[in-house]
Design brief:
By secondary structure, the chain is mostly beta strands. The chain is built from two helices and seven strands. The N terminus is likely disordered.
Length: 132
């Protein structure tokens, strides 16, 4: 099915259950050494392969309505629904000063422990900077 309802969170804001048919299971690899080696050896054949290489790493997600997210990617699916932890959300809004006519840019930032991001608001996903 196309239902992500199997995704649930415990009181400690950690993932307790994941629908393996919908979300990437590569984050479940318990052997970090082989997981790291797999990341380096993986050939990119599809656009989502770049996101697959970013599992368990911090990513930047630009969203609709001037929202930006920075957080650790735990899971994603083909619709770009994502589960992020240690998230910093920035909301940018602009307004015009009535007296001077100048544009005023306001930025609000908040921290969120665990966040489910619905894929239809995602504009861009940027993996961490890799040096090689």
């Amino acid at each position: 099915t196309n239902d992500l309802s199997a995704l649930s969170f415990s009181a400690k804001n950690t993932i307790t259950s994941v629908n393996h048919n919908q979300l990437s299971a590569s984050h479940l690899d318990s052997n970090k050494t082989s997981h790291t080696q797999t990341k380096k050896q993986t050939k990119m054949e599809e656009p989502l392969d770049l996101i697959k290489l970013s599992i368990d790493e911090r990513v930047y997600v630009k969203c609709r309505n001037d929202r930006e997210l920075r957080g650790r990617l735990h899971a994603y699916d083909q619709h770009l629904n994502m589960v992020l932890s240690e998230v910093e959300e920035t909301i940018t809004s602009t307004e015009e000063d009535e007296e001077t006519g100048e544009e005023i840019v306001n930025k609000k930032t908040r921290s969120v422990g665990m966040l489910f991001v619905r894929g239809d608001i995602v504009v861009l996903v940027s993996p961490p900077l890799r040096t090689s």
